[in-house]
Amino acid sequence: MSAVxxxxxxxxxxxxxxxIMRWITTTNHKDIGTLYLWFSFIMFxxxxxxxxxxxxxxxxxxxxxVDPDFFNQMTTMHGLIMVFGAIMPAFVxxxxxxxxxxxxxxxxxxxxxxxxxxxxxxxxAALLVISxxxxxxxxxxxxxxxxxxxVQMGMGMDLTIFAVHLLxxxxxxxxxxxxxxxxxxxxxxxxxxxxxxxxxxxxxxxxLLVATMPVLAGAVTMTLTDRHFGTTFFNAAGGGDPVLYQHxxxxxxxxxxxxxxxxxxxxxxxxxPAFARKPLFGYASMVSATAGIxxxxxxxxxxxxxxxxxxxxxxxxxxxxxxxxxxxxxxKVFNWVxxxxxxSLSFETPMLFAxxxxxxxxxxxxxxxxxxxxxxxxxxxxTYYVVAHFHYVMAIGAVFAGYAGVYFWLPKWTGRMYDxxxxxxxxxxxxxxxxxxxxxxxxxxxxxxPRRIPDYPMMFEVWNKISSVGAFGFGISQLLFLYIIVSAIxxxxxxxxxxxxxxxxxxWTHLPTPAPRHSFHxxxxxx
Amino acid sequence: MASSSxxxxxxxxxxxxxxxFSGLALGLEWNLQPAVTRIAADIHDVHTYVMVLVSVIxxxxxxxxxxxxxxxxxxxxxxxxxxxxxxxxxxxxxxxPLVILVVIAWPVTKVVVAQKDTSNPDLTIKVTGYQWKWGxxxxxxxxxxxxxxxxxxxxRDQIEGRAPKGEHYLxxxxxxxxxxxxxxxxxxxxxxxxxxxxxxxxxxxxxxxMPGFIRDLHFRAEKAGVYRGQCVELCGKEHGFMPIVxxxxxxxxxxxxxxxxxxxxxxxxxxxxxxxxxxxxxxxxEQVYAANCVACHQAxxxxxxxxxxxxxxxxxVNGPRQAQIDIVxxxxxxxxxxxxxxxxxxxxxxxxxxxxxxxxxxxxxxQVLPAEVKALRK
Lengths: 527, 378
Prior knowledge:
- The structure holds 2 protein chains of 2 kinds.
- By secondary structure, chain A is mostly helical.
- Chain A has helices spanning 2-13, 19-25, 29-57, 68-103, 111-130, 156-184, 197-228, 242-276, 283-296, 312-324, 326-340, 349-372, 374-380, 384-414, 420-447, 461-491, 506-509.
- In chain A, α11 runs antiparallel to α12.
- Chain B has 3 domains: 2-75 and 84-115, no CATH class; 123-268, Cupredoxins -  blue copper proteins (Immunoglobulin-like, Sandwich), CATH 2.60.40; 278-376, Cytochrome Bc1 Complex, Chain D, domain 2 (Orthogonal Bundle), CATH 1.10.760.10.
- Chain B is built from 10 helices and 10 strands.
- In chain B, the strands form 3 sheets. Chain B has a 5-stranded mixed sheet with strand order 3-2-1-5-8, with no helix packed on it. Chain B has a 3-stranded mixed sheet with strand order 4-10-9.
- At the A-B interface, α4, α8, α9, α10 and α11 of A face α1, α2, α3 and β7 of B.
């Protein structure tokens, strides 16, 4: 252990490329965390513009702005870019920055692999973007890439498949790094059950990633060979079955939902106690609830497939298993509320976003419970109700947790404070516009509007108009976030070592602000 | 300052949201469509029951949270308690949700079982999803043998904004599926190309149509009327433009429809033995083109290359007849070009091929005869 620390000590005085080479060759967890976070924000903007193209076309019935083929490309790429390019890298960025500091380690366990797992991402993103310029354009199949529609696509589909492969490799390497770091590099005295909950949620998420990304890689590889090499995995004419693709995809796809949600839970579990000035309620039950959600997530996948025509026993099994997830998730929500109860609450921007997360994520959780009921889902499957549901848990849940985290740790990362008044503006604008965008989609879905359509019957017009107005408002509000962050980095007030009174993990209690380039040359002494 | 104006903005935006909700009072569609079958009614009841239940829980949990937000504030001088565990409470809030789930699951299970019981139907209809229309074959019960294709009837002019949109914009078809009221109808779904999904909200039925497989659903409509739905599984470019319309009629009207439909079909059937002139074939072909080809290849014949190639100037259309007939009959593998052999009769195929060979810049001047198509059918 000490040999490792010494090497780092030397490196600190050794090779220090400047400019762009600093970022390309960096093996420092903080630099890499920063790269992940900026990459994720750029992708968030790109995917956001695509969402606005969708909402622009849906503002009025009829075809006005884009043709249906391009519309399908937009929905596909919006989904893929937001899931794989924006949300997942954002939380890997948090993991990189925070896990070594939180457990008292000098850096991530595999520093060079860390560099590689980030630098794969821009190439994967480039493949996705290039696919728009190939003959036939990007694939218009939805982010779920269901067979056999995928077989009809142009070469943009192949680029997308390779992009998914690259993204998967990046995630697997990142996960191995996180698991190894947490299991091996904890400071003496930092027992597993003493770690901040954020580390626990990431440890479990990393296992989910290692288990499911290869499954997705298998599904898209079969799609590739069906397209080009005459296999018929998903073609009945050759003995295959299109439903097989869906089973494989969702065996990855459902844990993926928790891959996104669990780190968000972790961030919120750090932020809420800090602003309640009270320890997290039920730490041990939080850990077991996280593990429970992760385990259950492997046996519920076919609730995305209630309309493929499963037998009664299948419908019922997946319905019961899915509804069970409400129990550990409920435990988490109750614990967060109990953490706030009888605390000494203050509502700086990170706490506003955390409470916004708690309220709106739970709302999305309840519509999830409604959707889990196989009988009811027959009416709601593939409608805007589903779109509303998963945007409440992802676009609101994960993104709000991400914002809470950025505002919370920005002082630690940069040594400077953001503008609190502007931060509050950012929160209120976001929370209002995003609800205008997505709340009305519940009504459109209940009334019968299918998802992924570029044009719609007249009765859905009002909901779509409201939703489009909200979407543009939300999109523009995010530019305010960019401004707040850039001006904080450039000219923000100097942050004190511990700007948040109730924060109690190692990065706040044992390190100066901003955090030094190498966190712990010698392990911290823990009581 | 900033935060008080933020509050003003919030109030303003809430006002808009409030206006949106008052739209509900103006008769906006905001809930599940009125049920016409027992199962749809059961689904709606279960949905309402669960919504009430979760709304109460939601209000309870967040009532506690917001009380805390208002009462346990630092700026009100509230001191933080330091407890962070309570086994009794934690066991309770794990056990109670479990009980609630059982309470929810019981009525839902009964509906799921009923949804899947497709036994003993009075009428069986096979529905085939094509890119992008539906085929209906009455295969058992009264009307056996009736078979037709049902495509969007909304004119392109309305979709592209050159004409005002009608009342049933995007929810109207050229041939409606007709079923008798009060009879158990079993629908078999399948597809010819990619996955589609057949949905009538008022019946509470939705079933994916899988290429190469048969799945089924059933309904017993209790009220005559016209019920509309749409394809709900992304199936390519025109996914948003393949509606489903079911007309439920009394038993007498149904029998009359069956009789008339069979007679009309016989009368309208193109006589393959008839001699067609080039102009007649072209005119017939133009109709077939408008109903089947125009969405991809466009009225201009220019298509949207490279996915949907141009026919105007195309080497296939201007080349040997046999090769073109083969593509139209059997489709082109791994592309959205469907096999029209199963959807169109020989005369329609001959007519539409003749039309494409003698329209726009294409001036072959020859004509494809129905007999030629017939000879090339495999």
